[in-house]
């Protein structure tokens, strides 16, 4: 039964669906062709590994009894572009088995190469455009095939938001002494507006969700600022932020705002959408009961959303934290160096999610409770 329903759902029923499948197929062909796009690269030499030979293998042990192996392999590489197209070269690759800083290469992999002084060739890294294109194609295909118009709107939303973020970064780089918090907060508001407009349409439901999202996000940021001011930011080592070339505190707050915005918008959307459905099913329901319905939804989802944010943060810091612990550092030092700032950002987002529950429920109960129900 499930198989029959799936086939029926996927079977094209209109010219638009046939065109969609055709576009997806052409994109798939494009992904395949990235395997042969070496002539398009002009700044770097592209080569394909034809064979590998292990030349040496040496065991190394550090003072903490961590064991690794230093391996040297000789790669036979065929050059695929440039003046030396078609030539075969041999390149030495030194790597550690742990793969922390470098990697082994296998036959069939394509590499970016650098032409050094004389005729020496060195390895820059692996060419991964085919893998990236394949993952993007799978994501886009699933969105379009399974979700169709909502999936297309999701793709448009992502592209517009990427463009807005790019504009914000360019403004930050080109304008001296710009207020980073206001800049990225403003961009975040625009991103929320675009996302909700495409997802919900221009209606009362979208306006209530946007209002609840922004109020909760700004309130969480204000609370964080107050707490940080009262505690004089003790325990927050902003200088440990990676690649910071300007004041780190505003960058930290901007990161926290953007990180919280998505989760708060998710919570607000679920709450408001449920209240509108309840209002539509029971037009006679009171505002208090509608408010309590929103609170019930919020209580059921805020724990899961906060956990998702925490797990994302843990996945970002797990590898580096494990490296610190394996090299004799204490748990306290490892957490301070790698985790404290991320934990604080997760807490700020959690505060925003908690605030979004009564705010979204209250706004929806007040504005949705009338004779006109927006579908």
Task: Give a written overview of the molecule.
Keywords: Membrane, Transmembrane, Transmembrane helix. This is YibE/F family protein. This protein is of the alpha+beta class and 375 residues long. It has two domains: 85 residues, OB fold (Dihydrolipoamide Acetyltransferase, E2P); 221 residues, no CATH class. The protein contains ten helices and five strands, in the order ααβββββαααααααα. It has a five-stranded antiparallel β-sheet, with no helix packed on it. Strand 4 and strand 5 form a beta hairpin. Helix 2 packs antiparallel against helix 3 and helix 7 runs antiparallel to helix 8. It is globular. It starts with a helix and ends in a 7-residue tail after the last helix. The relative contact order is 0.08. The C terminus is likely disordered.
Please provide a brief summary of the model.
The chain is built from 10 helices and 5 strands; from the N terminus they run H-H-E-E-E-E-E-H-H-H-H-H-H-H-H. With 375 residues, it is an alpha+beta fold.
The number of helical segments is 10
Largest beta-sheet details = 5 strands, antiparallel
Structural class: alpha+beta
| Strand order in space, largest sheet | 3-2-1-4-5
Using only C-alpha atoms, the radius of gyration works out to 27 Å
Strand content: 5-15%
Number of strands: 5
